[in-house]
Amino acid sequence: MVIVDEALKKRHYENKPIRVALIGAGYIGSAIALEMLTGITGMKLVAICNRTPSKARRAYEAGGIQSVKDVQTLAQLEQCITDGVYATTDDPMLLCQAENVDAVIEATTDIDFGARVVLEAIANRKAVILMNAAVDATIGPILKVYADRAGIVLTYTDGDEPGVAMNLYRFLKTVGYQPLLMGQIKGLLDHYRNPETQRAFAEKAKQKPAMIASYADGTKLSLEATIMANATGFKVGKRGMYGPKCTDVRHIVEHFSAEQLLQAGGWVDYVLGAEPGSGAFVVAYSDSPIKREYMVNFKMGGGPLHVFYTPYHLAHVQAPLSVARAVLFHDATIAPAGAPVCDTFAVAKRDLKAGDVLDGMGGFTCYGLIDNYDICQAENLLPITLSQDCRMKHDIGKDQPITYADVLLPADRLCDRLRIEQQRHFDSQVSRCLTTA
Predict the structure, then answer these.
(1) pTM score, two decimals?
(2) Phi/psi class of residue 407: alpha, beta or left (left: φ > 0; alpha: ψ in -120 to 50)?
(3) Cα of 295 vs its chain's centroid, Å
(4) Which one of 19, 50, 363, 396 has the largest count of C-beta atoms within 10 Å of its C-beta?
């Protein structure tokens, strides 16, 4: 949103910066901190929480901030913010509860921890910006219900592929084109990659091997497509998506027909190995012969399908824009539109034996695949994001979907309770609609 720059400039000149708290000072959290501390005006990163506070301090130091105070109480944190002193802590609830915090960025990868943070932030009427795809894809719809009731914005971030694609989607709808296909440009997909195969790359990139493995094995791809689906109502054409191989993203229109996409009402999908190598795309439709003539002249192809794409996704750079949109304009970059549309479930990465404990996303035991939500529910499939620490009750073979009946869940997880609440909430909505009809 181009308007954001002027709004932030105004905040800067009025000395009323948006006060932002960041939870998670890992790879992406530290990158966000650096951008906010060195490149963004009209916004102040007032506090960082990390379970190891020294990492939060290092994130500040990388941005040129040397004077930082570690706090243990809410009063200490609020006084620091009032005095203009940057704060660090290992207690995320302080950031969610502080009256002088406007927005909370949740930049961890843990779904249960993330769920607790989001609920506490919502309870204290903070705008919430998610970097945590596991939370959004799995329990985002019910958390959005909580946010709507509180009158605050819950949004996934700009800069990650779902946010980048949604910017294109909204633009195209605004200018009168009908989005019918959206997704991301994927360079590699191998369902059997694991932390060991990705260790060297992860060390070079200064990231965790399991996180890199979740990119390579397609789990993160499916989660991000789920986020897009839940925001737009688009489904998948088949389990796991089609993912055609293309030399250029613009060639995707050779693999899908307008009739096919119109009949489906829109799909999420991806292209594999296509230039420009990164980013997100939306394929939009126009049935106007005159408009198509103009599009030919402007090098957008003969239609009726036209490919629009952004050749990069820079979550750490673009996340502050989502903060500004949420706080200043009450605008979510991308958020669930209602009931879940798609889901990402766990599939055995190898033969699994009774008693095996699943190691979650990017591990050695399972990968994630997307399918339409109603199918996942009918087959009782276990979301990949809820698979961590589940114990197998019996043997299943490699590449077999894992169901709830196959596992024992860890005890007393908030994410499991929210998942049940989500299912009941939207099932009851459907029942009410049927009764009314």
Answers:
(1) 0.96
(2) beta
(3) 32
(4) 50
Report the C-alpha dihedral over residues 355, 357, 363, 366, rounded to 10 degrees. Answer: 60
Q: CA-to-CA distance for 31 and 37, rounded, in angstroms?
A: 10
**What is the band of 436 on the pLDDT scale with cuts at 50, 70, 90?**
very low
Query: Which distant-in-sequence residues (6+ apart) come within 8 Å of 157 by Cβ?
Result: 105, 129, 130, 131, 163, 315, 318, 319, 322, 333
| DSSP reduced 3-state for 45 | strand
**pLDDT tens column, 13-29:** 999 999 999 999 999 99
Q: Are 264 and 242 in contact (CB under 8 A)?
A: no
Per-chain mean pLDDT for the chain = 96
Is the pLDDT at 243 greater than 80? The verdict is yes
Q: How many CB atoms lie within 10 A of CB 53?
A: 20
- Structure-token match 């109480």, residue found: 73
Provide the token pair at 308.
Answer: 């629009």
Percent of all residues in the chain with a pLDDT value above 90, rounded to a whole number:
94
Kindly report the number of other CB atoms within 10 A of residue 243's CB atom.
Answer: 17
CA dihedral 15, 156, 234, 2 (to 10 degrees): 20
Q: What is the pLDDT of residues 347-363, one digit of tens each?
A: 999 999 999 999 999 99
Residue 102: C-alpha distances to residues 16, 72, 82, 253, 328 (Å): 11, 20, 13, 43, 10
Torsion of the alpha carbons at 306, 167, 179 and 221, rounded to the nearest 10: 90
